[in-house]
Amino acid sequence: MTVDPVCKAAVDEQQPPGGKAQYWGKTYYFCAPGCRAAFQQRPNKYADQPSESDEPTYDPRMFLGDM
Fold first, then answer.
1. Cα gap 5→27, rounded to integer Å
2. What mean pLDDT is predicted for residues 25-44?
3. How confident is the model at residue 49 (pLDDT cuts 50, 70, 90)?
4. Phi (first) and psi of residue 46, to 5 degrees
5. Residue 6: how many CB atoms within 10 A of its CB?
6. Which sequence spans correspond to the domains of the chain?
7. Please, which residues bridge with residue 22 across strands?
8. Looking at residue 53, what is its pLDDT?
9. How far is 59 from 33, CA to CA, in rounded Å?
10. Contact, 11 vs 17, CB < 8 A?
11. CA spacing 20 to 30 A to 48: which of 4, 11, 14, 42?
């Protein structure tokens, strides 16, 4: 189990009801599609902030697509 970064609900990583998305190389899991949509609109509000030494595995300005 992991925690939805938007609403803080417990989410099963194997079958997340709201899907999942990646940001700065980390995968986030969601309890509902609305939480995923909120995350995709403002990921910096909900995501763990990377340290200055972290390099993204992709350009973070790219679309935060569904997986």
1. 11
2. 93
3. confident
4. -110, -25
5. 20
6. 1-67
7. 27
8. 59
9. 24
10. yes
11. 14
